[in-house]
Design goal:
binds copper (II) ion; 46% helix; single chain; five-stranded mixed beta sheet; 3 domains; 16% strand; alpha+beta; Immunoglobulin-like; 348 residues
Protein backbone atom coordinates (compact mmCIF):
# COMPACT_ATOMS: atom_id res chain seq x y z
CA UNK A 1 0.00 0.00 0.00
CA UNK A 2 3.08 2.21 -0.29
CA UNK A 3 2.31 4.53 -3.20
CA UNK A 4 5.58 6.43 -2.95
CA UNK A 5 7.63 3.34 -3.81
CA UNK A 6 7.81 3.78 -7.57
CA UNK A 7 9.66 7.11 -7.70
CA UNK A 8 11.66 6.10 -4.62
CA UNK A 9 13.07 3.09 -6.45
CA UNK A 10 14.68 5.38 -9.00
CA UNK A 11 16.17 7.64 -6.33
CA UNK A 12 17.55 4.62 -4.48
CA UNK A 13 19.25 3.34 -7.61
CA UNK A 14 20.93 6.68 -8.27
CA UNK A 15 22.06 6.85 -4.64
CA UNK A 16 23.51 3.35 -4.79
CA UNK A 17 25.41 4.19 -7.98
CA UNK A 18 26.73 7.40 -6.41
CA UNK A 19 27.82 5.52 -3.28
CA UNK A 20 29.58 2.89 -5.40
CA UNK A 21 31.39 5.62 -7.32
CA UNK A 22 32.42 7.30 -4.06
CA UNK A 23 33.75 3.99 -2.69
CA UNK A 24 35.79 3.42 -5.83
CA UNK A 25 37.40 6.85 -5.58
CA UNK A 26 37.89 7.03 -1.79
CA UNK A 27 40.98 4.74 -1.39
CA UNK A 28 42.95 6.78 -3.93
CA UNK A 29 42.06 10.02 -2.22
CA UNK A 30 43.03 8.60 1.17
CA UNK A 31 46.42 7.30 0.03
CA UNK A 32 47.17 10.65 -1.56
CA UNK A 33 46.31 12.25 1.78
CA UNK A 34 48.63 9.85 3.64
CA UNK A 35 51.51 11.17 1.59
CA UNK A 36 50.56 14.75 2.38
CA UNK A 37 50.15 13.98 6.08
CA UNK A 38 53.78 12.86 6.39
CA UNK A 39 54.83 16.44 5.73
CA UNK A 40 52.26 18.05 8.02
CA UNK A 41 53.51 19.61 11.27
CA UNK A 42 52.36 19.96 14.89
CA UNK A 43 48.54 20.33 14.67
CA UNK A 44 48.16 17.05 12.82
CA UNK A 45 50.28 15.24 15.42
CA UNK A 46 48.14 16.60 18.24
CA UNK A 47 45.03 15.38 16.50
CA UNK A 48 46.48 11.89 16.26
CA UNK A 49 47.27 11.95 19.98
CA UNK A 50 43.82 13.19 20.89
CA UNK A 51 42.09 10.15 19.48
CA UNK A 52 44.71 7.49 18.92
CA UNK A 53 42.65 4.33 19.61
CA UNK A 54 41.47 3.17 16.23
CA UNK A 55 41.90 3.39 12.52
CA UNK A 56 39.01 5.84 12.29
CA UNK A 57 41.16 8.48 13.95
CA UNK A 58 43.79 8.06 11.25
CA UNK A 59 41.12 8.41 8.59
CA UNK A 60 39.94 11.61 10.21
CA UNK A 61 43.40 13.07 10.06
CA UNK A 62 43.95 11.83 6.55
CA UNK A 63 40.76 13.52 5.51
CA UNK A 64 41.63 16.80 7.25
CA UNK A 65 42.49 18.60 4.06
CA UNK A 66 40.16 16.45 2.00
CA UNK A 67 36.89 18.16 2.87
CA UNK A 68 35.02 19.22 -0.22
CA UNK A 69 31.30 20.06 -0.18
CA UNK A 70 29.11 17.18 -1.39
CA UNK A 71 27.93 17.54 -4.98
CA UNK A 72 24.33 17.67 -6.13
CA UNK A 73 24.29 13.88 -6.71
CA UNK A 74 24.02 13.57 -2.91
CA UNK A 75 20.70 15.41 -2.68
CA UNK A 76 18.18 13.15 -0.94
CA UNK A 77 14.57 13.14 0.21
CA UNK A 78 13.31 15.60 -2.38
CA UNK A 79 9.68 15.70 -3.54
CA UNK A 80 8.97 13.48 -6.55
CA UNK A 81 6.56 13.98 -9.44
CA UNK A 82 3.08 12.65 -8.73
CA UNK A 83 4.07 11.56 -5.23
CA UNK A 84 1.12 11.47 -2.83
CA UNK A 85 2.83 10.51 0.39
CA UNK A 86 5.66 12.00 2.47
CA UNK A 87 9.16 12.50 1.14
CA UNK A 88 11.54 9.58 1.48
CA UNK A 89 12.71 9.50 5.11
CA UNK A 90 16.29 9.31 6.37
CA UNK A 91 15.83 9.05 10.14
CA UNK A 92 14.37 6.25 12.26
CA UNK A 93 11.40 8.35 13.43
CA UNK A 94 10.75 9.45 9.87
CA UNK A 95 10.75 5.88 8.57
CA UNK A 96 8.34 4.87 11.31
CA UNK A 97 6.06 7.82 10.56
CA UNK A 98 6.13 7.12 6.85
CA UNK A 99 5.23 3.47 7.49
CA UNK A 100 2.41 4.55 9.80
CA UNK A 101 1.04 6.93 7.18
CA UNK A 102 1.33 4.56 4.22
CA UNK A 103 0.45 1.26 5.88
CA UNK A 104 -2.06 2.29 8.57
CA UNK A 105 -3.60 5.73 8.12
CA UNK A 106 -4.03 5.82 4.35
CA UNK A 107 -5.69 2.36 4.07
CA UNK A 108 -8.00 3.03 7.04
CA UNK A 109 -9.02 6.44 5.68
CA UNK A 110 -9.67 4.92 2.26
CA UNK A 111 -11.80 2.06 3.62
CA UNK A 112 -13.85 4.37 5.88
CA UNK A 113 -14.48 6.87 3.07
CA UNK A 114 -15.60 4.15 0.67
CA UNK A 115 -17.79 2.53 3.34
CA UNK A 116 -19.54 5.81 4.23
CA UNK A 117 -19.95 6.67 0.54
CA UNK A 118 -21.52 3.21 -0.02
CA UNK A 119 -23.94 3.70 2.87
CA UNK A 120 -24.97 7.12 1.56
CA UNK A 121 -25.60 5.81 -1.95
CA UNK A 122 -27.56 2.88 -0.55
CA UNK A 123 -29.80 5.20 1.48
CA UNK A 124 -30.26 7.61 -1.44
CA UNK A 125 -31.30 4.82 -3.81
CA UNK A 126 -33.32 2.58 -1.53
CA UNK A 127 -35.04 4.99 0.85
CA UNK A 128 -36.05 7.93 -1.29
CA UNK A 129 -39.74 8.95 -1.44
CA UNK A 130 -40.47 7.14 -4.67
CA UNK A 131 -38.84 3.81 -3.80
CA UNK A 132 -39.99 3.77 -0.19
CA UNK A 133 -43.29 5.65 0.06
CA UNK A 134 -44.16 4.41 3.57
CA UNK A 135 -41.07 4.71 5.81
CA UNK A 136 -40.50 2.34 8.71
CA UNK A 137 -40.99 3.86 12.18
CA UNK A 138 -38.07 1.96 13.75
CA UNK A 139 -36.30 4.18 16.31
CA UNK A 140 -33.78 1.99 18.15
CA UNK A 141 -31.65 -1.03 17.42
CA UNK A 142 -29.40 -1.99 20.30
CA UNK A 143 -27.14 -4.25 18.26
CA UNK A 144 -26.39 -1.62 15.59
CA UNK A 145 -25.88 1.08 18.21
CA UNK A 146 -23.34 -1.05 20.08
CA UNK A 147 -21.54 -1.85 16.82
CA UNK A 148 -21.34 1.75 15.58
CA UNK A 149 -19.95 2.84 18.93
CA UNK A 150 -17.50 0.00 19.46
CA UNK A 151 -16.02 -0.22 15.97
CA UNK A 152 -14.90 3.44 15.79
CA UNK A 153 -13.51 3.18 19.33
CA UNK A 154 -11.48 0.13 18.36
CA UNK A 155 -10.22 1.85 15.19
CA UNK A 156 -9.13 4.90 17.22
CA UNK A 157 -7.40 2.75 19.83
CA UNK A 158 -5.67 0.87 17.03
CA UNK A 159 -4.39 4.14 15.55
CA UNK A 160 -3.44 5.51 18.96
CA UNK A 161 -0.88 2.77 19.62
CA UNK A 162 1.57 3.63 16.79
CA UNK A 163 0.66 7.31 17.10
CA UNK A 164 1.62 7.60 20.77
CA UNK A 165 4.68 5.44 20.11
CA UNK A 166 5.81 7.97 17.49
CA UNK A 167 5.11 10.87 19.83
CA UNK A 168 7.15 9.24 22.62
CA UNK A 169 10.06 8.48 20.26
CA UNK A 170 10.26 12.14 19.31
CA UNK A 171 10.83 13.07 22.96
CA UNK A 172 13.76 10.70 23.39
CA UNK A 173 16.71 12.48 25.00
CA UNK A 174 20.07 12.48 23.25
CA UNK A 175 22.87 10.46 24.89
CA UNK A 176 25.60 12.32 26.81
CA UNK A 177 28.12 11.98 23.97
CA UNK A 178 25.78 13.37 21.29
CA UNK A 179 27.13 16.11 19.03
CA UNK A 180 25.59 19.44 20.05
CA UNK A 181 24.60 21.97 17.41
CA UNK A 182 22.65 25.16 17.99
CA UNK A 183 20.64 26.59 15.11
CA UNK A 184 19.79 30.27 15.53
CA UNK A 185 17.13 31.88 13.37
CA UNK A 186 17.82 35.43 12.23
CA UNK A 187 15.77 37.70 9.96
CA UNK A 188 16.41 36.12 7.43
CA UNK A 189 19.13 33.53 7.55
CA UNK A 190 20.39 30.78 9.84
CA UNK A 191 23.42 30.60 12.10
CA UNK A 192 24.82 27.24 13.23
CA UNK A 193 26.98 27.10 16.35
CA UNK A 194 29.02 24.09 17.53
CA UNK A 195 29.38 24.73 21.29
CA UNK A 196 31.30 21.50 22.01
CA UNK A 197 33.65 21.94 19.07
CA UNK A 198 35.15 25.32 19.82
CA UNK A 199 31.96 27.36 19.61
CA UNK A 200 32.42 28.61 16.05
CA UNK A 201 29.36 29.80 14.15
CA UNK A 202 28.56 29.21 10.49
CA UNK A 203 26.26 31.75 8.81
CA UNK A 204 24.05 30.29 6.11
CA UNK A 205 22.43 32.41 3.39
CA UNK A 206 20.36 31.44 0.37
CA UNK A 207 22.15 31.25 -2.99
CA UNK A 208 20.90 33.26 -5.95
CA UNK A 209 19.22 31.38 -8.79
CA UNK A 210 22.36 31.60 -10.94
CA UNK A 211 24.58 30.23 -8.16
CA UNK A 212 22.14 27.40 -7.34
CA UNK A 213 21.82 26.44 -11.00
CA UNK A 214 25.59 26.42 -11.36
CA UNK A 215 25.79 23.96 -8.43
CA UNK A 216 23.00 21.79 -9.82
CA UNK A 217 20.98 22.52 -6.68
CA UNK A 218 17.34 23.60 -6.35
CA UNK A 219 16.93 27.35 -6.17
CA UNK A 220 15.47 28.70 -2.88
CA UNK A 221 16.82 25.62 -1.08
CA UNK A 222 20.52 25.86 -1.89
CA UNK A 223 22.68 27.86 0.55
CA UNK A 224 26.24 29.18 0.64
CA UNK A 225 27.26 27.43 3.89
CA UNK A 226 25.43 24.22 4.75
CA UNK A 227 24.79 22.86 8.22
CA UNK A 228 27.44 20.13 8.24
CA UNK A 229 26.61 17.21 10.54
CA UNK A 230 27.95 13.70 11.14
CA UNK A 231 25.81 10.86 9.79
CA UNK A 232 24.87 7.89 11.98
CA UNK A 233 25.64 9.92 15.10
CA UNK A 234 23.08 11.20 17.61
CA UNK A 235 22.90 14.98 17.35
CA UNK A 236 21.55 17.24 20.08
CA UNK A 237 19.97 19.85 17.82
CA UNK A 238 19.02 22.98 19.70
CA UNK A 239 17.06 25.86 18.23
CA UNK A 240 16.67 29.46 19.26
CA UNK A 241 16.20 32.80 17.54
CA UNK A 242 17.74 36.22 17.78
CA UNK A 243 14.77 38.38 16.72
CA UNK A 244 11.38 36.79 16.02
CA UNK A 245 10.07 33.22 16.09
CA UNK A 246 11.40 30.98 13.32
CA UNK A 247 11.07 27.22 12.91
CA UNK A 248 13.72 24.76 11.86
CA UNK A 249 12.16 22.13 9.61
CA UNK A 250 13.63 19.35 7.44
CA UNK A 251 10.82 17.17 6.03
CA UNK A 252 12.97 14.22 4.91
CA UNK A 253 14.51 13.92 8.39
CA UNK A 254 11.15 14.18 10.19
CA UNK A 255 12.42 17.17 12.11
CA UNK A 256 10.57 20.37 12.94
CA UNK A 257 11.28 22.52 15.97
CA UNK A 258 10.33 26.12 16.73
CA UNK A 259 13.18 28.58 17.21
CA UNK A 260 11.97 31.03 19.86
CA UNK A 261 13.88 34.11 21.12
CA UNK A 262 14.97 33.61 24.74
CA UNK A 263 14.32 29.88 24.71
CA UNK A 264 16.42 26.88 23.81
CA UNK A 265 14.45 24.02 22.28
CA UNK A 266 16.12 20.68 21.88
CA UNK A 267 15.50 17.45 20.04
CA UNK A 268 17.62 14.49 19.06
CA UNK A 269 18.35 13.92 15.39
CA UNK A 270 20.14 10.94 13.89
CA UNK A 271 20.68 11.03 10.14
CA UNK A 272 21.02 7.51 8.84
CA UNK A 273 23.14 8.14 5.77
CA UNK A 274 25.39 10.82 4.27
CA UNK A 275 23.68 13.20 1.89
CA UNK A 276 22.24 16.67 1.37
CA UNK A 277 18.83 17.33 2.92
CA UNK A 278 16.82 20.50 2.42
CA UNK A 279 14.35 22.29 4.63
CA UNK A 280 12.92 25.74 5.23
CA UNK A 281 11.95 28.10 7.99
CA UNK A 282 8.41 27.04 8.88
CA UNK A 283 7.21 29.98 10.95
CA UNK A 284 6.04 33.15 9.22
CA UNK A 285 8.87 35.42 10.33
CA UNK A 286 8.71 38.48 8.10
CA UNK A 287 9.28 39.73 4.58
CA UNK A 288 11.98 37.24 3.60
CA UNK A 289 10.58 34.25 5.50
CA UNK A 290 10.47 32.25 2.28
CA UNK A 291 14.15 32.92 1.56
CA UNK A 292 15.94 31.43 4.55
CA UNK A 293 16.27 27.77 3.52
CA UNK A 294 18.11 25.10 5.46
CA UNK A 295 20.57 22.75 3.78
CA UNK A 296 22.06 19.93 5.86
CA UNK A 297 25.14 18.13 4.66
CA UNK A 298 25.57 14.81 6.48
CA UNK A 299 29.07 13.35 6.24
CA UNK A 300 30.78 10.22 7.59
CA UNK A 301 32.08 11.00 11.08
CA UNK A 302 35.75 11.24 10.07
CA UNK A 303 35.01 13.69 7.27
CA UNK A 304 32.77 15.73 9.53
CA UNK A 305 35.66 16.01 12.01
CA UNK A 306 37.89 17.14 9.16
CA UNK A 307 35.33 19.80 8.29
CA UNK A 308 35.19 20.97 11.93
CA UNK A 309 38.96 21.40 11.93
CA UNK A 310 38.82 23.26 8.62
CA UNK A 311 36.49 25.75 10.34
CA UNK A 312 39.01 26.26 13.14
CA UNK A 313 37.02 24.06 15.52
CA UNK A 314 38.12 21.23 17.77
CA UNK A 315 37.09 17.59 18.03
CA UNK A 316 36.83 15.15 20.95
CA UNK A 317 39.56 15.51 23.61
CA UNK A 318 40.84 18.79 22.17
CA UNK A 319 37.47 20.35 22.87
CA UNK A 320 37.72 19.79 26.63
CA UNK A 321 39.91 22.84 27.26
CA UNK A 322 38.95 25.01 24.32
CA UNK A 323 35.20 24.61 24.24
CA UNK A 324 33.85 26.06 27.51
CA UNK A 325 35.34 29.53 27.02
CA UNK A 326 34.48 29.76 23.36
CA UNK A 327 31.02 28.30 23.82
CA UNK A 328 30.15 30.84 26.50
CA UNK A 329 31.31 33.70 24.31
CA UNK A 330 29.22 32.45 21.45
CA UNK A 331 26.13 31.78 23.52
CA UNK A 332 25.97 34.96 25.58
CA UNK A 333 25.30 37.61 22.90
CA UNK A 334 22.48 35.58 21.39
CA UNK A 335 20.91 34.91 24.78
CA UNK A 336 21.11 38.54 25.83
CA UNK A 337 19.53 39.81 22.62
CA UNK A 338 16.86 37.20 22.85
CA UNK A 339 15.94 37.82 26.47
CA UNK A 340 15.69 41.55 26.11
CA UNK A 341 12.27 41.49 24.44
CA UNK A 342 10.42 38.93 26.59
CA UNK A 343 11.42 40.83 29.77
CA UNK A 344 9.65 43.94 28.53
CA UNK A 345 6.61 42.10 27.29
CA UNK A 346 4.90 40.72 30.49
CA UNK A 347 4.14 44.26 31.77
CA UNK A 348 1.46 44.67 29.09
CU1 LIG B 1 12.19 32.44 9.74
Amino acid sequence: MNFGNLPRGAVRMITTLAAAAALAVAPQALSAQDATEAAVSAPATEQVEAAPEDAAATDAVAATDAYTPLGSEWIKGQPVDKGITFQEQYSKDGKFALWMHDAILLPIITVICLFVLGLLLWVVVKFNRRANAVPSKTTHNTFIEVVWTLVPVLILVGIAVPSITLLARQYESPPADAVTVKATGYQWYWGYTYPDNGGFEVISNMLTKEQADANGEPHQLAVDNRLVLPANTPIRLQTTAADVIHAFAIPSLWFKLDAVPGRLNERMLTIEEPGIYYGQCSELCGARHGYMPIAIEALPRAQWEAWVRSQGGTVGGEAEEAAPAAATEAAVPAATDAEAEPIAAPAA
